[in-house]
């Protein structure tokens, strides 16, 4: 069975997150051309409003293959108004790429995301983007990361001619330079490594790489990559980093069934699509799945699996993978499928701070509007829809200012 990694890409707004996703898909061979946010033709921004405004509103899931590893990738919103989409995505990840603009640097949203990833012990790669832009400063951003986020960061590349289209990158391990960042961080994390180093035994490239992979996959240190996704710079290094510094998903298909619903959508025909990450066991078409807290089970009518830039119909999904299930009409976001698992994370970054009212133009039709909004609330339970029985006023929770 092919190894699987489930990763998320998170960032502050306009850091270039969706452009990175497009280039990962392109350089891995999953798509034939790179979509552009400004042209509204990217793979992961499919809503009309996303294409119009050039931002990600809903998380989207897609996959590619690299070095014989299947990578399921979740592109999440960067705007704080859509933080609930990020929350749901984090619950299924084996690793995360945190994108920071090399021009704007660390933002408040960057800190919130990083602290959440650290608290959940989700292995994280940091990618400093937009180094081809005027005003970019990789060294300053890297020092700010060390000072304000974590000192357990290791720079894996040197970058030259920053702030111009001539910008280029060299891997530190492809040069004769000793990576002082790696030596310092590994000395803090590994007592035996420190003792050998103090004793005059110089670590070789292979040992450093092995140690970096071990501690990065545990979430103890953070590899830092850089580039300019808009021109494809640094993308192949990042692809290699995904396969080197993130842990593989478990593949215990013979264990008890264990998974979590992290996303719900509806088709144009109003069919419910339930996105599930499996941590144990397997699910096949026609299997009956117990609905949490109810004495009923529902039959899986169809399964779609993510495959190299698209979706394919499948007879089953197995532990470690993400599947899209049809027929589960009673399941909600956050529901556990099968038994609970210590890998299933209970996440709450923030609660909606605002409450507003919604009304149909004709107030008599508010009950119909409420019924339609209930379908929307399936996708985002934090909306917490309410309707006053007396005046039929509809209340909804919101993020924003």
Arithmetic mean pLDDT: 85
Just give the CATH class of the largest domain.
Answer: Alpha Beta
Radius of gyration: 22 Å
Give the tally of structural domains: 3
By CATH, the topology of the largest domain is: Rossmann fold
How many runs of DSSP E, i.e. beta strands? 22
Largest sheet: 7 strands, mixed
Q: Which regions contain 5 or more consecutive residues with pLDDT less than 50?
A: 45-58, 78-82
Q: How many H/I helices? A: 10
Report on the structure:
This protein has helices at 17-27, 48-53, 83-90, 108-119, 138-148, 180-189, 191-198, 205-217, 235-245, 366-379; strands at 3-11, 60-66, 69-75, 95-101, 124-129, 153-155, 157-160, 168-171, 222-226, 258-266, 272-280, 282-284, 288-290, 297-299, 302-307, 310-314, 316-318, 322-326, 336-338, 354-358, 386-387, 394-398. With 401 residues, the chain is an alpha+beta fold. The chain has 3 domains: 3-245, P-loop containing nucleotide triphosphate hydrolases (Rossmann fold); 258-338, Beta Barrel (Elongation Factor Tu (Ef-tu), domain 3); 354-398, no CATH class. The strands form 6 sheets. A 7-stranded mixed sheet has the order 2-3-1-4-5-9-6, sandwiched between helices. A 6-stranded antiparallel sheet has the order 16-15-18-11-10-19. The chain has a 3-stranded antiparallel sheet with strand order 20-22-21, covered by helices on one side. Strand 2 and strand 3 form a beta hairpin. The longest helix has 14 residues, at 366-379. The protein is globular and about 75 Å long. The N and C termini lie far apart (47 Å).
């Amino acid at each position: 069975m092919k190894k699987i990694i489930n990763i998320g890409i998170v960032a502050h707004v306009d850091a270039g997150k969706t452009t990175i996703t497009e280039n990962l898909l392109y350089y891995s061979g999953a798509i034939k051309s790179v979509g552009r946010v400004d042209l509204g033709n990217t793979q992961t921004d499919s809503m009309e409003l996303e294409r119009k405004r050039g931002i990600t509103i809903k998380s989207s899931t897609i996959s590619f293959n690299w070095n014989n590893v299947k990578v399921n990738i979740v592109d999440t919103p960067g705007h704080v108004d859509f933080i609930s989409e990020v929350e749901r995505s984090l619950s299924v990840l084996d690793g995360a790429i945190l994108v920071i603009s090399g021009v704007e640097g660390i933002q408040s949203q960057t800190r919130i995301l990083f602290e959440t990833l650290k608290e959940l012990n989700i292995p994280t790669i940091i990618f400093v983007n937009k180094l081809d832009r005027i005003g970019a400063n990789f060294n300053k951003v890297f020092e700010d990361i060390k000072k304000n986020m974590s000192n357990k960061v290791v720079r894996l590349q040197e970058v030259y001619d920053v702030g111009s289209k001539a910008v280029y990158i060299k891997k530190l391990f492809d040069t004769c330079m000793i990576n002082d960042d790696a030596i310092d961080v590994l000395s803090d994390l590994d007592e035996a490594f420190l003792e050998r180093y103090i004793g005059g035994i110089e670590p070789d490239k292979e040992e450093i790489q092995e140690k970096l992979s071990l501690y990065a996959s545990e979430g103890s240190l953070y590899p830092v990559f850089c580039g300019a996704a808009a021109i494809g710079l640094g993308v192949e290094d990042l692809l290699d980093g995904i396969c080197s510094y993130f842990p593989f998903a478990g593949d215990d298909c013979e264990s008890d069934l264990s998974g979590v619903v992290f996303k719900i959508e509806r088709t144009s025909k109003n069919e419910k699509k339930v996105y599930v990450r499996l941590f144990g066991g397997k699910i096949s078409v026609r299997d009956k799945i117990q609905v949490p807290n109810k004495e009923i089970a529902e039959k899986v009518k169809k399964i779609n699996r993510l495959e190299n830039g698209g979706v394919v119909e499948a007879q089953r999904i197995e532990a470690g993978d993400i599947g899209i299930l049809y027929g589960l009409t009673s399941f909600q976001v956050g529901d556990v499928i099968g038994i609970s698992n210590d890998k299933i994370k209970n996440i709450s970054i923030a609660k909606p701070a605002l409450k507003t009212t919604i009304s149909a133009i004709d107030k008599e039709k508010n009950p119909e509007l409420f019924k339609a909004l209930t379908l929307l609330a399936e996708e985002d339970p934090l909306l917490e829809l309410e309707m006053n029985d007396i005046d039929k006023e509809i209340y909804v929770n919101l993020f924003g200012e």
